[in-house]
Amino acid sequence: MGCKLTVNRHGRLMYRIYVNGHEFWEGLGRRDTARSRKRAEADAVRIGADIEDGTFDYERWFPEGNKLHLFRPPADAVQAAPAPIRVRDYVEHHWMPRKQPPLVRASLTHTYRSDLNCHVLPTFGDKTFAEVTVPTLEDFRATLLNRETGKGLAVKTARCIIDGTLRALYRDARKDGHAAGDPFAELVWPRKAPPDIDPFDEAERDTLLSHFHDRDRFWFPFVHTAFLTGLRTAELIGLRWGALDLRKGTLTVRVSRSYDEDNAPKTARSARTIQLAPAALRVLREMPAPLHRDGDAFVFTTPTGRPVDRDRFTAQHWRRALRATEMRPRKFYATRHTFISLAMTKGMPLKLVATYCGTSVEMIEQHYGKWLSDDMGRWLEQITAKPAPGSAIAAQNP
User: Fold this and answer.
1) Are the C-beta atoms of residues 254 and 265 closer than 8 Å to each other?
2) Cβ atoms within 10 A of the Cβ of 118, count?
3) First to last CA, the chain
4) For residues 5 and 7, what is the distance between their CA atoms, to the nearest angstrom?
5) Which of 182, 186, 216, 339 could form a disulfide with 230 if both were Cys (CB 3.0 to 4.6 A apart)?
6) Can you give the residue ranges of every domain in the chain?
């Protein structure tokens, strides 16, 4: 393939072109003069380069040429751009049907549906995606944040709705040809505040455990295991007997359960096997096991044998325990915060904490750094406790 400059029998310049299995000639309408040839040779090089890299545009080079039919797609092959579609119609007929388990987590489906029905569709439902612009997004954000005339939401919540749900919707609409560009990239948000980590201290933890042991005994193993393992709530709820080895004293995280659905653990690090503390192991061994227990049976259930519902347990048992013990209100997830903060206060190495809890060292440092043990003297003493005989350190410590 390529382009070669030639001269016809009338002394006029021509291109001999080879492309995609076709060979043809294109006249330039100019005589073979030094000036014309120089210009034509330069163009022949450019045409040849376009042919080689697959970007040759016949109509651009030869708008009056008689070979246009070879380079234009047939009429029935030209796809018209999709007609504009309302955001509501795209959500109902295309997007949400794709965002169902097992393709996405049930919790994410729930979030999408809530954000769309409560916030996004009332504002954008009757618009097309071309009307989702930076100004309309800024107006929408102002409405979500305004406490007097709007929703009065927190910045974090508004950002989850706009930069999470609505942006994911827009991104998929763009893939389907219904949207263009990325107006969300130009929306400036305040710097994210670090999440509110509010663990219990050791005395508060023990007070709560005593309350469950004495006054809500059925749920004591559930709360005790949460405090002494640092498991995520979804990991605790999804725990099966087959993932417990009470002889070896280990627990394997295989499942994360939310909204009555089993999912893979949150991240690759979250799938892990941990050694149970003696106290945690003792409580699990003392649990009344089901008569016909199999490996897939839930370790923790309701009194009627149903899987634990996080929200119902929180409302009926956890908050009641906090009130009874006069504790500051905190989510049940604070049991994990408590385990991590106490581990760091006791001087457990960051890497070990991260591995045990199924997360990264970076996350531990970022969110729990203030609980790092500052007992530098103890660590320095351990480093220099037994200096080698004859060493400079030993000489300074006779």
Assistant:
1) yes
2) 11
3) 88
4) 7
5) 339
6) 2-77, 87-186, 202-371
Token representation of residue 368 = 């729990």
Whole-number average pLDDT of the chain: 88
d(CA 40, CA 380): 81
- Cβ-in-10-Å burial (0-12, 13-18, 19+) of 304 comes to exposed
Which residues have CB under 8 Å from 321's CB, separation 6+?
208, 211, 212, 216, 327
User: Which two three-digit tokens encode residue 294?
Assistant: 């199999």
Domain spanning 87-186, CATH architecture: Orthogonal Bundle (1.10)
Regarding predicted confidence, which is higher, 144 or 10? 144
pLDDT tens-digit series, residues 330-366: 999 999 999 999 999 988 999 999 999 999 999 999 8
* DSSP β-bridge partners for residue 18: 2, 23
Q: Phi and psi for 180 in degrees, rounded to 5?
A: -145, 150
CA neighbours closer than 13 Å in the CB half-sphere of residue 398: 0
Question: Cα–Cα distance between 244 and 30 in angstroms, integer?
Answer: 88
Q: Quick one: DSSP state of residue 298? A: B
CA 290 vs CA 188, 235, 237, 295: distances in Å? 55, 20, 17, 11
Query: What is the CATH topology of the domain spanning 202-371?
Result: hpI Integrase; Chain A (1.10.443)
> Between β-strands 261-263 and 244-245, what pairing exists: parallel, antiparallel or unpaired?
unpaired
Amino acid found at 50: D
Strand positions, DSSP E, the chain: 2-7, 12-19, 22-31, 244-245, 250-253, 256-258, 261-263, 272-275
Query: Does the model's pTM come out above 0.70?
Result: no
Q: Is 136 exposed, middle or buried (0-12, 13-18, 19+ CB in 10 A)?
A: middle
